[in-house]
Hints:
By secondary structure, the chain is α/β, with parallel strands linked by helices. Helix content is 57%, strand content 9%.
Amino acid sequence: MIRLLYGIRFLCYNPTAMENLANIWQEARAQLEDTLPESKKQWLSKISFEKEENGTLFLSLTSPFYKETTEKNCRADIENTVAGIAGHEVPIEFIVNTEKKSNKKPVSKNVKKEKTEKPPHNPTLNKQYSFDNFISGDNSSFAFNACKVIAQNPGTSFNPCLIYGGVGLGKTHLLQSIGNYIDEHNPKMKIIYTTAESFTNEFIDSLLSKEKISSFKTKYRNVDVLLIDDIHFLQKKDSTQEELFHTFNELYDSHKQIVLTCDRPITELTDITDRLKTRFRKGLNVDLQPPAYETRMAIALQKCRERNYQIDQKVLEYICQNVNTNVRDLEGALTTLSSFASLVGKPVTLEIAKEQLKNFIVTPSIKNNDITIDMIIHSTSEYFNVKEYDIRGKSRNKNITLARHISIYLASLLTSYSLSEIGKMMNGKDHTTIMYSVEKIKSIIDTDESVKQAINTIKEELMQS
Ligand code: ADP
Ligand code: MG
């Protein structure tokens, strides 16, 4: 079938237009930009044309990790597209060339724009955050794509939008990226980024005089885009909630874009009025999950490139295998090692990394069969048919609470993590909460047949895997 398609494309192919593989690759890249899903495009942007030798197309990547991941994710798409344009199959080799800089287009576009035509900068936005330097993986691609659509069409699609997820998973990064994108492409639009905490403080401050309160209202009700970070902070702040409710209504009714972030789903917010919760739940609610190993590795490589950290591949692998809580911790581990390297004036070895990160990341020593907490949560979530996010979270739903207690119990049983380490990996719970779960399960395991069966089944599955 594929061959037949090549044949048909071959009939339409004009050989004079594409005399060599460099041109064919250029054309293929352009086609792939249009056809590849967003999750694969990030790998495409890392590929450079290297050379043409004896009819083979050599494409290069700047690290072994990029080479491996790009080949895994995009080889078939690239081969098909190149063959379609060439009119015959073209042998393709992927190689590593550490000299070459990534030729990701959007970055250079940005750099150019900043140099030539930058309008006055919006002080509420932080330029360091952009869609270009956000690595999207399975854990975040839905949120990432939704945010891009919002940024491209503010006020028309997905309004309001709420991004929720645990700490350090990129909520602020995405919210700021929306602001920066709109600021760049629609410089006339009035954008305000603020945290719920600043909004609250500013509101309290404005209560001092009539002029201040009126200028506060004017400021927030006359924007095109309102971005409010960490709205969980509004819990128990009744007057601020009331003010936000009216601001929200005015903006919403005039089709202005509102994007909010929260550390949990709206349903789990307590002490927020129902009418405000209902407003937040309109539009789109998207979640961010912790990134998987491959995404952590891609993020780590990018952070090293951005900050010019020289960290050995093996050490990076060690970090990414073990720092699995969130991206902020990952960044922290990279900074710690890079600072250590520059202090002692030599590169960090795996041994040094293990020693330096001992108190910082959870140690990888596992009691049994390399079972990780991620695996335990995954199997438990499947058994109980609940989301992994919910198991790590705070939902009080009966089924989820039981799944959480069982995950924690199994983590204490099957891994050698301490209670506080387990707590850290369960979205920062303290060790007394973890101890409570372990004791709870211990107290019912002998009498509750369904709990016993759940534990045995999950344990068996983990042992097998
Ligand atoms: P949150 O607001 O969810 O607590 P942040 O947006 O502050 O998290 O992210 C913490 C750090 O991790 C920031 O420096 C951010 O740039 C980085 N980060 C998070 N997710 C990603 C990602 N997918 N790609 C690149 N950097 C990320
Ligand atoms: Mg944040």
